Amino acid sequence: MINIIVGRGLQFLLMLAGMKLITTVLNPAEIGRFSLLNAGTSFFSLIFIGPVGTYINRKLHEWINSQILKSIINIYIYYIIIVSIFISPLVVVIFLKLNNPNLSINLELIVLIIAISIFTNSINQTFIPILNLINIQKLYLILTIGTIGSGIFLSYTLTSLFESKLIFWMTGIIISQLVFGLFGYYYIFRLLNLNKGVRSVSLKKIDFKRLLKIIAPISISAALGWSHIQGYKFILFSMVDIQEYGIYIAGYGVAASLIAALELILITYYQPIFFKKISGNNLINQGLGWSQYAKSIIPITIMGTFALMTIGDNLTKLMLGPNFSGSSKYIAYCAVAEFVRVLVGIFSYMTIANLKTYLVIIPQIVGLLFSCILMVYIVPIYGLIFAPLLLATGGLITCVLIYITRANKDHFNLPLGNIIKTFFIGLLIYLFIEIIKIIFFPENINGYILNLICSFLLITPFMVVVYYQFIHEYSKND
């Protein structure tokens, strides 16, 4: 666990450094365009690549034991190449439909960037995480940190040498993802000895009907999730000034980076346990695996969210470029939206555990419609500050509906008592630090740093208490 915390801590620092550099090099308008390109890339990855990757994770241990993983991986690589090539016409259609003069990006360039980015991101985000699932965590962390660190270095170097445009920033990221993704691919074959005793799997032997029945609902769910977390950005882009949109995106990026850093620490440790426990068809193990997974992730994420709400505005002032000082007003609301994003992912895993992935579709549709319809009416009147709040509310609706409609209700139970206790602990700490901040800390850089130090000293002991009270027994037993 210590290696994971240290590794993810380094990753967190790199992400903050990346935010500082990108908001220094690129102006708010370029940041806005960058977010839309990322949203476009993530859409196609989530729809066409993500569900297959999730299925690979779900069946990984079975395929290793039956010695067919090498054949599956080779088929998967061909699939990634085909998807990356054939999504280009879809990209053109989407950005032509957008038809916003503020976008001002060459369409041919968009096609090339997204097609290459989907391939490199898929390679990177499939093969490196497999190392974690087979408990080779040190190498997993090294390659993950290497991807981020080298991506930031290359992106900054290219924008400094040529021009402060998003094309050069994204080029650096693409190169880094490809290089370290191929390292992950190499080490999987080497460490698992996949070249020895291999059984081949032909396409004729694959039960595509059963496979489609499992991954199609995941694809639909991913599309709905993308619409909720990323797609709404296209709605905002059409309603607000691109400069203010870029400032909002930078603030959301800080919140997303911090919550994602905490989430990654937790899932790096607990996800291999989860997938191993739910492997097979035992309903009791599936339910217990999910319940323990939720018990391990939700309480600590609640504490992390309150911590971010406490330090986020000052951290934003320190870590973003001078053109993004207005981002601090969004940070607390974006932290709540990011927490709910994590929560939706945890609840969705309930349907992956028992392979009843179709049960997540209706809840996501309801949550999405609630968020997007109200956003169209509320944001133009009351401002961007309501966007993350509406996202969070829609996500909570999704979680409630997933839990109500879950299959095997006797086995999948939410640790509600732990969640309520943690929420009130976090709320009290947040209110206490806010009072101290108002009374003692001046509105200058010294005050910002003192606030960060004080918040860290107060919150860390409670994070440790939450870990040992609610989580430690699970990690010790597994």
Describe the protein in words.
This protein is mainly alpha-helical and 478 residues long. It has two domains: 1-202, no CATH class; 207-478, no CATH class. Helices cover 83% and strands 0% of the residues. The protein contains 15 helices and no strands. Helix 1 runs antiparallel to helix 9 (242-278). It is globular. The model has no long low-confidence stretch (mean pLDDT 78).
Helix and strand succession? Answer: HHHHHHHHHHHHHHH
Mean pLDDT: 78
* Largest sheet properties: none
Radius of gyration: 22 Å
Helix content: over 70%
Shape: globular
Number of helices: 15
What is the distance, rounded to the nearest whole angstrom, between the alpha carbons of the first and last residues? 13 Å
Would you report the number of β strands?
Answer: 0
The poorly predicted ranges are none
**What count of structural domains?**
2
Strand content: under 5%
Structural class by sheet pairing and helices: mainly alpha
Structural key phrases:
globular; 478 residues; mainly alpha; 15 helices; single chain
Quick summary of this structure?
This protein has 478 residues and is mainly α. The protein is 83% helix and 0% strand.
Write the layout of secondary structure elements.
Blueprint: H1 2-25, H2 28-65, H3 69-86, H4 88-98, H5 107-133, H6 137-161, H7 166-191, H8 208-239, H9 242-278, H10 283-319, H11 331-353, H12 361-382, H13 386-404, H14 416-440, H15 445-477
Helix pairs in contact: 1-6, 1-9, 2-3, 2-5, 2-8, 2-9, 3-5, 4-5, 5-6, 5-7, 6-7, 8-12, 9-10, 9-11, 10-11, 10-14, 10-15, 11-13, 12-13, 14-15
